[in-house]
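Entry for the shared binder. Reason: the reviewer on the internal report wants the predicted structure included alongside the sequence.
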Amino acid sequence: MPLAKDKRAAVELSETLRETLALIHQRSVGDTLVIMNDAGITMAQMVTLFALGKFGEHSVCDIADRLHLSAAAASHLVERLVVAGLVERVEDAGDRRQKRVSISKSGEQLISRLNRSRVLEFTVALAKLSPALRGVLREVLEKVNFELRGSEPGRQPVRVHKSACLRARAKRKATR
């Protein structure tokens, strides 16, 4: 039963972390949301921009897989980002039917503004903690980040199921 006990401890820790983040967010309601609203982007579009900024160029299917969207929904999401000038879309050199999407300079600037806003919101909330507690929290979070980075394979966890994009890609390969 150690696994069940570990899982229960992880769930309890997750709940504590969720509560901590809720307390931080309630004290810092939203410059981030104002920036998103001013830019006219949705949460899914913001996640896409962050993914493109962190992991680089993606196909539309990769974006669909990452966000658990249909290929059509991802295509519409990307189109809105292209029209807004936040991403650039080009033909895949290896398969002209596929499109590759990368973040534009404007998209990078927006992500930078969002990151600065989040840091400011967290700073205001965390400034209410004692210096000693902030020091302990920083040490613990640095260790947590180190371990989480070590378990991160680079993109995302492998899925048990195949998305519609992956099935279509496999089917195209099989017919070549």
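Summary line for the report: The chain has one domain: 2-174.
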